[in-house]
Specification:
- The chain is an alpha+beta fold.
- It is built from 15 helices and 13 strands.
- The strands form 3 sheets. Strands 5-4-6-7-11-12-3-13 form an 8-stranded mixed sheet, with helices on both faces. A 3-stranded antiparallel sheet has the order 8-9-10, with no helix packed on it.
- Helix 14 packs antiparallel against helix 15.
- The radius of gyration is 21 Å and the shape is globular.
- The protein binds flavin-adenine dinucleotide (FAD) and iron/sulfur cluster (3 copies).
- The site of one iron/sulfur cluster has 12 residues, from helix 6.
Amino acid sequence: MESNYSVCTIDKCTGCAACANICNHNAIEMCYGEEGFLFPHIDKIKCVDCGLCKITCPANNPVSLYKEPIGVYSGWSKDDNVRMRSASGGAFAEIASFFIKHYNAVVFGVAMNQNLDAVHVSIEKIEDLYRLQGSKYIQSHIGDAYRQTLYFLQRGRFVLFSGTPCQIGGLRKFLKKDYETLFTIDLICHGVPSKRIFIDYIKYIEGKLGHRVRDIKFREKKCSWIFFNIAVNEQAGISNKNIYEYEGGYFEDPFIRAFLRDNILRPSCYQCQYTKTKRTADYTLADWWGYAGNSRMDKDFEQKGVSLIFCNTHKSFSLIKNMNILLRQRTLTEALETNKSLQYPFVMPSTRKEFWSDYSVLNFSQIVDKWFYCEKLLPSTYIKYKYRPSMMRKILLKFAHLYEKCQKLI
Ligand SMILES: Cc1cc2nc3c(=O)[nH]c(=O)nc-3n(C[C@H](O)[C@H](O)[C@H](O)COP(=O)(O)OP(=O)(O)OC[C@H]3O[C@@H](n4cnc5c(N)ncnc54)[C@H](O)[C@@H]3O)c2cc1C
Ligand code: SF4
Ligand code: SF4
Ligand code: SF4
C-alpha cells in the first residue's frame, strides 16, 4: 500500500519528506511502496488533521524558482584526487570545502550506509567530505535533515544543503523563508530509480561474487567518466582506495542500463516540475555532457569528468570565483544543448506497465535478459569504453571508424 491518507496525489509525490518534517505530531513516516519508492504514511491516531502537511507539500504548492542562472560554467576541481572521487568534475566537494573552511558551515548531502541505504547526513569537517562525494543513484532518506537544518540556521550557523531539486524544494517549503546563511545545491536530475530494483540488483551481484556487498561506488572513473561505471566491495570504505571486487560500466552492468532506460524511475519523475533552467537552489550541478576538449588542459576530461555549474543567486555567484575550481564561462544555450533534463522530464516509456508486471513474475536474471540487456556495440564505442585516451587509442579509433564506414554502420 502506498499510503493510508494522501498529502498529495501519488503520481505527483516526489518523496521529499517535507510533510514528515513539518508534522509537529510526528504522524508521518516515509515508507516504501510496492515499486520501491518512499511515500508518506500517516498514522491516523497521531494525526490531528491540522492540514499543515498539505500546505507545505511542494506538489500542492510549488516552491518559487530563482531567475535564469547568473553564472553558467563548465569546470572541475584543481585537485585531481577530489575530481576522481566525484561523479563529474568535483565541483560539489570544492564548494563544500570552501564553505567549511571560510564559514564553518554544516554541509548536508547524501552518504551510503553499510546497509546500502542512501541517507542525508551532515558533516562539519573536510576529512568527512568523501562520504558525500559521488552520485548515489537511488533516492535518499531525508530523515529529519530539514529539521536539523532549521536548528543550525536558528543558531546563526551557515548551512550548505545539497540534494535533488525536489529535496531542495521540500527544504525551502519546510523553512518557509529564506536565510542569509543558507546555501543550497541542486542537481540536474534524470530521476531516481526504484530501491526495490536496486536491492534485487545487489542480491544478483552478491550471487555472482558469493558474498555480501557493503560498499558501492556508482561512478568509478579508473577508465572513464562518460560510461558510468559501478564498482562494489564486500567491506565498507574500500572503494575509496580504488580496490574493487566487481566493476561494470554501461555495457556490462544491468543497473546502470536499467536506470538510463527509464522504466524504473519514480512516477513523479516523469512529470517533474524542476526540469527547468530556472532553478530552486543557489547552485546547480551536473555533468557537462558533450564536452569538447580542445586545449592541453582538457586532455584527461573523458576520464576525470567535467562539471556543469550554475550560480542562480547573487550570493552564490559572488563566491564561486574564490573556490578551487578551474572555471570556464559558458552560455545557457550551450548547457541546454547537452542536458535534456533542463527542459523537460524524461518521458515515461510506453512499456513501463509491462515491465512492472514482468517484474512480479520473473526472476532478476530473466528481467536482465528481457529488459536490461546490452545493445550491440559499435567497435569505436567499445574502444572508447575500454581504452584510456592515448596515441594507441587514437589509431584504433581511426581503424574502427573506417571499418564502420565500410560496413555502413555509421
Ligand atoms: C539521482 C541522480 C540523478 C542525476 N541525474 C543527472 C542528469 O540527468 N544529468 C546530469 O548531468 N547530472 C545528473 N546528476 C548529477 C551528477 O551525477 C552529479 O551528481 C553532479 O554532476 C555533481 O557532481 P560533482 O562531481 O560536482 O560532485 P559529486 O561529489 O559527484 O556530487 C555529490 C553530490 O550529489 C549529492 N547526491 C549524491 N547522491 C544523491 C542522491 N541520491 N540524492 C540527492 N543528492 C545526491 C550529494 O549530496 C552531493 O551534493 C544526477 C545525480 C543524481 C544523484
Ligand atoms: S511533501 Fe513531499 S513526500 Fe510529502 S506528499 Fe508532498 S511530495 Fe510527497
Ligand atoms: S494533518 Fe497535521 S497532524 Fe496530520 S499528518 Fe498532516 S501535519 Fe501531521
Ligand atoms: S526527477 Fe524531479 S521528482 Fe524525480 S527525483 Fe529528480 S527532482 Fe525529484
